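Pilot study result, target chain (380 residues):
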Amino acid sequence: MFETMRRKVSKLKYYKTSILMVFSFLFGCMLTINLTPIDKTCKIEDSDREYNIMRNSKLKNPDLIILILSAPRNMDRRNVIRQTWLQLVDTNPEDEENIKFKMKHYFVIGSLGLSVDDILHLSTEQSQFSDILILPMYDSYQNLTMKVLKSFEWLDEQFDYGLGFRYVLKCDDDSFVRLDKLSTEIANVELIYLKSDLKYVKSLAENDASPFIRSNVQINKDGTKNELELYWGYFHGSAKVKTAGKWKEPNWISCDRYVPYALGGGYILSRKLISFIAQNRDNFRQYNSEDVSVGSWLAPVTNILRLHDIRFDTEWTSRGCQNFYLITHNITKEEMQKMYDNIITTNNLCSATSIKRRHYFYNWAVPPSQCCNLKEKEKT
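Predicted structure:
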């Protein structure tokens, strides 16, 4: 009798194991299919790149890649973004060839350590929207720098497979971006700063002609051609190094303040800077703050144009609402919807303008510790 019971238990365990193996196989197949954001083709040589991009619809180049850092369980935020500011992109699937400025977005999420339920929800979301970049890493505040670094690494790799792009906007899922204005502003920056004579660009950096921008040109002494790469955002240079809290940097040894960096609520980098960071990733120190890390990685690099722009409301908390803002950070889902509705009905971001904190114009002519003093409000 005991032997009979033992055999039954053994058979039951066998069936359970078999069922579990089949389920695991099917589940793995589902993840492989649904959590892959881009189909890679064979790697192409530079001489074949233009031909392949023109011939293969999968390889049509977006001008701007938008990386939106998100947490696995923030599907409600992602859906609000999909329904609001991502709708401001000029897209017409029937006339794709004539879109002047193409944009493509990815929500960036780490997949390791997630529960089965979280993975199932994420897989379903990916099946529906195909706009999630799944990274093989643990998703946490402590890993934000690694998350940005791996995103840049992935983009650099995709470029070798034919996904050309010119710029990358990194932002968070609590940021609102005026994509309807951004393409025009990128074109203006290109015309004024990136395609002009270098002497003219340097002269712009020495005066305050722009109502929004303060520029800085970093080149070697023998530089005569405009070969500048873009680093565009709202810069800070006098921030003291954090010694406590979740952003503390116990191993920071550079100086007693952070190296000037564009604040992480939203900043734009040109493609070559993305590739530079990706290809030198193993040589970089990773600090707790991803925006501080990017600033330190790019600090010694030549041929960089840094644009401090007050239209990037990208500090840790919003400065309020101004209709000239291009990016607004740290806002609620309800505020996103309200901003979108305002744009659709009035073409203005704000139902009523407000100032919670004053902006500053970065002074590139003084040491970083003196860069960012608030003055009397300047007219904008």
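One observation from the pilot: The chain is about 35% helix and 15% strand. A full batch analysis is planned for the follow-on phase.
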